[in-house]
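Quick start: what a row looks like.
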Amino acid sequence: MNIVIVGHVDHGKSTVIGRLLADTNSLPEGRMEMIREMCRRNSKVFEYAFLLDALKDERSQGITIDAARCFFHTQKRKYIIIDAPGHIEFLKNMITGASRAEAALLVIDAKEGVRENSRRHGYMLSMLGIKQVAVLVNKLDLAGYDRRVFAGIVSEYTAFLDKINVKPTCFIPVSATEGVNIASHSEKTPWYTGNTVLQELDAFVTDEETEGLPFRMPVQDVYKFTREGDNRRIIAGMIDSGSIAAGDEVVFYPSGKKTTVKTIESFNRPPQSEAHAGNSVGFTVNEQIYIRRGELAAKANEPAPHVATRVKTSLFWLGPTPMEKNKTYLLKIGSIKTEVMLDSIIGVMDASDLSSGIKSEIGRNDVAECVLVCEKPIAFDLASDLPATGRFVIVDNYEISGGGIITEALTDRLTETRELVLRRNYKWEQSSITPLERAERMNQKAALVLITGGPGAGKKTVAKALERRLFNEGKNVYYLGIGSLLYGVAADIKTAGEIPERGEHIRRLGEVANLLLDTGVILIVTATALTAADMEVIGLTVEPSAIHTVWLGEDITTDVKVDLHLPWHEDEEYAVRRVKEKLQDTGFIFKA
């Protein structure tokens, strides 16, 4: 079980854990003697915190900088204890330490009382979704073990935690230096009859004890084995919640593709029939579907995660420069990484006193309620439902500069289209012939070649010449002019002389393309002046990696991103050769 220790600087977090390790005989042999000798040589008073503060700067300044980890066990379970820094300059390290914790101990100095970081850390534990929090009122020896001092801190801090919806499991009066109420009760606090720190740790509930939650597993990778006739494709990741077993029907989000688990696989372990939260595992499936890193696996008979590009969040900013609008950042949630922008700021809060206001940017150490817009759809849960899949971090200039939780999924202009695609993928009837088998038979991979450009650029001429060239070379290829679609599957929304429902036309084009690509064909489509918005719709309905966009004409007159730009003055044969080479270079046409 992962436990994080947080609190204001110098309130004694490292000392609490050092004392806990010492009193449970969990220290490596000779560690205590080594630290005592070091203190003697340097004329320093021995402190239990030195057992953890391994960095030289920490010992010289008496503060924790990095998140130190140590291990010990009780009769009930094994623990990883994370001692997170309390100094405001090292809040990023504190979040790193707390990000995967299942419970927390929050330490408050009895003499100093509730301080700024006591409140800030409490708020951040709330944002990280850590619901099991025990508050230790430390250094009570400096207050003469006065029950009134303890009661005052309990009253003040409880009032603060109530405002951020954190319900501590208990408050424990302790003196880490003297070992009071750490591993055993003490006569110095006869008025306290609750759990010791060690007993409270054992009372916390682990992830394994909450397996009734829906199954969630971010896909880390898909492994293909070929040696000695092994044809397994293993979908691998770590299970954040719930459990999975052979025979379960799973759905992957945001794609919405579904299949059935065939076997559970794990490294260097006996065969398993099921796997549980906290395990890093893999599984094979009965129906081979195209899955990639970043998908979120869920069970079909359990509540589904949300899929959206716009999300409402509570965000804590730690970057050296403010988070601002119209700047691109990276958002990481689970195993997916996507570009993201700050859309709007609803309000900014000072986490130390919960005062709020409106700002045009999010400054360092600010907590903001804001709306983020992702470059592509992400799958997630609300943090109030499943904390592990509702947490994210923001990367700026290769540094983790912020993080937070998702509080609401918001709609956008493609929400309806996305829901239609999810429904289609969920209901999709899988062929018994896999895409790999088709590719091997046809010596090609399914591809959508979109030839676009301004009017009169020769799109149809090039498209038909490309179709003929590939057909003569034995490829399975088909040309689809946009007119064939407009007056066919889109005839019910086509108005003579105008296209009032361009978005729906493009969606139907994508659906027709998706059907044809499932047969393994290379599909060539012409359309005038496709835009980035058009490509966004097509990318929802067709696997984006299979799309190749070609622009014919001297200048690209829309905001579309293309894979190949061919100026209008180039001849037809040259254009055909360049497109074919592009398909070969990307592995969609296999070179002889």
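That is the whole record. Residues 53-67, 86-91 have pLDDT under 50 and may be disordered. The chain has four domains: 2-205, 217-299, 308-416, 435-585.
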